[in-house]
Amino acid sequence: MLFTRKQLFQLILPLIAEQFLAVSVGLVDVMMVSRAAGEAGIAGVSLVDTLNVLLITLFSSLATGGAVVASQYLGKKEPDNASKAGGQLIITTLFFALIIMAISLIGNENLLRVIYGEPEKDIMRSAATYFFITAFSFPFLAVYNSCAALFRAMGNSKISMYVSIIMNLINIAGIYIMVFLLHMGVEGVAVPTLVARAASAIIIYTLIRQKKNIIHVNNILHAGIDFRMIKRILNIGVPNGLENSIFQIGKILVQGLVTSLGAVAIAANGVAGTIAGFALIPGSAMGLAMITVVGRCVGAEDIAQAKKYTVKIMKLCYLILGVLNIGIFLFREQIIGLFALSGPSEKTTMALIIYHSICCCIIWPLSFALPNALRAANDVKATMTISILSMWIWRIGFSYFLVKGLHMGVMGVWVAMTIDWLFRGICFTLRFVKGKWIRHAYLN
């Protein structure tokens, strides 16, 4: 067996903790903004966070591609090539992140207006400020995501968890000082977030350079460019990036639809989305673990173990997701009470959270955790095609139908989202069960 039960838990548990800490940064930002700038601040940060996710999706997807390649090399027992892939991954993601940062800084408010139209002045002011400051963090996020992916490929997810703890402590302390002591608004949330991301990138890059790691990266300034290795990373990262980018573009289009419903809908959607992010933490962690585990099995050309570990991780995913979402459902009033929402916004948020908690336990794992097993086996084009079709037909198309046609308000957007989950889940499950992904596993 390539992984014992103990090794799986040593991989997965820190990943859950890391994802919890990563999502908590966004939660703290929203909570603090609600105290400093009210619902206009929440709405502005919510709009930018949706856009930020799109802009950082490229190097997050490339990091996944690099992790798959590195894991497969480790499965082949070729650690030197795994280390080489790691260096090329950091160079590639950093290059694209710098381009994205420049576009974001130059475009800023104009970019926001093109995407979201003309929201209220207070919302636009908050969004533009938050967007400008956080754009400087994109290169740091690229380096952090790449290094964290490499540590996960080694089966060492504790490092990124520890770095996440440091990042969160810096972020929370900075926000407390700037918001509650210096009485700053959105800037008081954005600047500590930037500083925390910069610190985390510097720390984890220093750690990945240590030669005691089976995957270690030399000084990237002297590494040179290996186009063959980059091409292999891009063969996995680009379809994954295209899939995720189109997914985020779709979410932005839907966000624009939500924006047209007014401040109450924007605030409720933003807060509910933040809480829902916590509900998905175990699933996201399982998806990351799937990359490492299945990628290692594929590198060793052991498809039987790849199947076995996929089923085992999916079972664990359902178990933990179920427990967490039941907890959120039971304590929903106390959780939503942490945000400074008006009565109508609070009522709408409550309905969204109840609906999401139910659907998340049943549908989400098959639609987002399972496809990572397919990606780790090089089956990236099929997952990309299924995801893109599902996004445009169900999530976007049905959002406009339910909101504009049936007048369901922001709830219509969330119903369309879960229909998208259902379609993906059915397609990915059938592909895994029928074994159509296996022929791609031998192309590594």
Automatic annotation (TrEMBL):
Record keyword Cytoplasm present: no
InterPro entries cross-referenced by the UniProt entry: MATE_fam, MATE_MdtK, MdtK-like
Record membrane topology: Multi-pass membrane protein
A Pfam family matched in the record: MatE
Bilayer-spanning residue ranges: 12-33, 53-74, 86-107, 127-147, 159-183, 189-208, 252-269, 275-295, 316-341, 353-370
Single biological process term from Gene Ontology: monoatomic ion transport
Keywords of the record: Antiport, Cell membrane, Ion transport, Membrane, Transmembrane, Transmembrane helix, Transport
GO cellular component, one term: plasma membrane
Molecular functions per Gene Ontology: antiporter activity; xenobiotic transmembrane transporter activity
Entry's localization field: Cell membrane
Family (UniProt): Belongs to the multi antimicrobial extrusion (MATE) (TC 2.A.66.1) family.
Function: Multidrug efflux pump.
Listed name of the protein: Probable multidrug resistance protein NorM
The organism of origin for this protein: Anaerocolumna jejuensis DSM 15929
